[in-house]
Amino acid sequence: MSRGRQRRRAVWVCQECGLESPGYFGRCPSCGAWGTLVERMVEGSAGGARASPPRGALHPLSEISSAEQKRVPLGMPEFDRVLGGGLVPGSVVLLGGDPGIGKSTLLLQGALRLAQRGHLVLYLAAEESPEQIKLRADRLAVTTDRVVLVAETFVDRALETAGELHPAVIIVDSIQTVSLSHLDAAPGSVSQLRDSTAQFLQFAKRTGVPIFLIGHVTKEGLIAGPRVVEHMVDVVLYLEGERFHQHRVLRATKNRFGSTNEIGVFEMTDAGLVDVGNPSELFLAERVRHVPGSAVVVALEGTRPILIEVQALTSPAGYGTPRRVATGFDVTRLQLLVAVLMKHAGVRLGDQDVFVNVTGGIRLVEPAVDLGVALAIASSASGIPLDPDTVYIGELGLAGEVRGVHGLERRLQEAMRLGFSRAVLPASSRLTSQLRGIAIVPVRSVAEAVSALAVTAVRSRRHATPQPPE
Ligand code: TYD
Ligand code: MG
Question: 3-state SS string over the chain?
Answer without folding.
Answer: CCCCCEEEEEEEEECCCCCEECCCCCECCCCCCECCEEEEEEEEECCCCCCCCCCCCCCCHHHCCCHHHHCECCCCHHHHHHHCCCECCCCEEEEEECCCCCHHHHHHHHHHHHHHCCCCEEEEECCCCHHHHHHHHHHCCCCCCCEEEECCCEHHHHHHHHHHHCCCEEEEECHHHCECCCCCCCCCCHHHHHHHHHHHHHHHHHHCCCEEEEEEECCCCCECCCHHHHHHCCEEEEEECCCCCCEEEEEEEEECCCCCCCEEEEEEECCEEEECCCHHHHHHCCCCCCCCCEEEEEEEECCEEEEEEEEEEEEECCCCCCCEEEECECHHHHHHHHHHHHHHHCCCCCCEEEEEEEHHHCCECCHHHHHHHHHHHHHHHHCCCCCCCEEECCEECCCCEEECCCCHHHHHHHHHHCCCCEEEEECCCCCCCCCCCCEEEEECEHHHHHHHHHHHHHHHHHHCCCCCCC
